Amino acid sequence: MRVKLILPSLTEAHSPFFRPVKYSLFPPLGLATLAAYLDPDDAIVLQDEHVEPLELNDAPHLVVIQVYITSAYRAYAIADRYRAQGAHVCLGGLHVTSLPDEAARHADTIFLGPGEDTWPQFLADFRMDRPQPLYRSTQRSLLGAPPARRDLIKRQLYLVPNSIVVSRGCPHSCDFCYKEAFFQGGRSFYTQAVDDALAEIDRLPGRHLYFLDDHLFGNVRFASALFDGMRGMGRLWQAAGTLQSVLRSGLLERAVDAGLRSLFVGFETLSQQNLRAQGKTQNLDRDYTAATRRLHDLGVMVNASFVFGMDDDGPDVFARTVEWAVSQGIETATFHILTPYPGTALPPFSFASS
Ligand code: SF4
User: Fold this and answer.
1) Ligand 1, atom 1: closest residue by C-alpha
2) pLDDT category, 248, cuts 50, 70, 90?
3) Residue range 175-200, pLDDT digits in tens
4) Cα 112 to the center of its chain, rounded Å
5) Atom of ligand 1 nearest to the CA of 177
6) Cα separation of 63 and 86, whole Å?
7) Which of 2, 86, 176, 263 could be bridged to 60 by S-S, CB 3.0 to 4.6 A?
8) What confidence score (pLDDT) does residue 345 get?
9) Ligand 1 center to residue 280 CA distance, Å?
């Protein structure tokens, strides 16, 4: 069977106003993970439009497209083209889970939520010539999942080829976050077996790693065992964790001993009222300055995340937030616009009320 896995490029990736390097950071690990479930004699091509032009004149039997909100129109155009050629087209990802009816108009099969249970089921159905139009994930586990087919990734085209994900989701539930929408209907936080995660790290060449997990510290037992296992591997790495996990003593030190040098931390807002309104209770009454100092004292660079547009934000929120970040010596920051994606706990966007 000929299988084509495609990550269409985000609209802004080709805009002169955005830096291309931002869009060639990480390889499409999700698609490489799906590829691992295919048969050894399947002919698989994985293409990421952010780093290479797509070859659209081929003739795959099965096409799988990962869809983000900002690549949705591009994804649909590619899907329509392949369907017109007779390929069976599958769409999945965050945007498909948010707006399944829209995506279904461009697909033979759509996938809602993560794919560890539904993708193997679909493949079995497809090979028996009875694929379903919709697969909804309910049984979630990474235990026994095959390692991602990293051999399909063109490593040389990426700034950070050693990205890695050893868990799915997050134990928290913040109103603005994609997480609840994507993981509804099943578990929303689960991890690999520690030995599997360590084996995957061991297979990665070079020295630097970039964990893309939402919250690498979310399961203390798992994280402790992972960090202990990584000690002595000589790796240097970046990850994401909550403010709460930064302030908790013990685990952060173990991470640093294992090579943590940069942490993405969700500060989100300087307003307690905003935190309460968004259900970000793990940040309530936490000392942001102490968290930043603690990371710096341990030699960890801070990549701070902030969200603008919450109800307690006034016109001064931008300058105030940036000034605070600069005053703390925060090395890098990511600023997001609060966006009420379907399926999140935020009320639907309305121009009238905004
Ligand atoms: S802690 Fe972060 S990843 Fe977890 S639900 Fe909140 S915003 Fe999402």
Assistant:
1) 172
2) very high
3) 999 888 899 989 999 999 999 999 99
4) 15
5) 8
6) 10
7) 2
8) 83
9) 8
CA distance 145 to 15: 37
**Residue 212 vs residues 164, 173, 215, 269: alpha-carbon distances, Å:** 6, 18, 8, 22
Residue appearing with tokens 């591009």: 74
**Is the shortest distance between the CB of 278 and ligand 1 below 6 Å?**
no
**pLDDT for the residue 341:** 85
Fold classification of 2-136 is Rossmann fold (3.40.50)
- In order of 170, 201, 223, the CA distances from 219 in angstroms are 9, 18, 6
Spans of all domains in the chain: 2-136, 162-337
Hey, what are 115's tokens? 């794919």
Whether domain 162-337 has CATH 3.40.50.80:
no
Please work out whether the CB of residue 215 comes within 6 Å of at least one atom of ligand 1.
yes
Cα 254 to ligand 1 centre (Å): 22
CA of 217 to the centre of ligand 1 (A): 12
- Mean pLDDT across the stretch 25-29? 93
Q: Which two tokens stand for residue 72?
A: 């949705």
Q: Is 218 in the pocket of ligand 1 (CB under 6 A)?
A: no
